[in-house]
Design goal:
mainly beta; seven-stranded mixed beta sheet; globular
Length: 118
Amino acid sequence: QVQLVESGGGLVQPGGSLTLSCAASGNILSLNVMRWYRQAPGKQRELVAAITSGGRTNYADSVKGRFTISRDNAKNMVYMQMNSLKPEDTAVYYCNIETIVVPTRSYWGQGTQVTVSS
């Protein structure tokens, strides 16, 4: 019943900006963490940013100061503004929502390709 729909990926030049969006639908408990992961070819999936229902955020060191995660609790939306993009940011980006209440539930988007190249 739960579905995550992502948008905003694409091709951007180094130094450019891009905004990713993820819309969640279905019955999702309000106490949750919304996250963005990414996976580049030949590499493991890594956590990029996370935001709690209370608005607390965490970022990977590689993106801190360049990426900003935000959410709209009323709309069940999570966003990630990406600035000063670098070629090493190229990856498939995945939206993830995980409920906090036990038993936890984890949901994933289909992934969206971000390519940073001149």
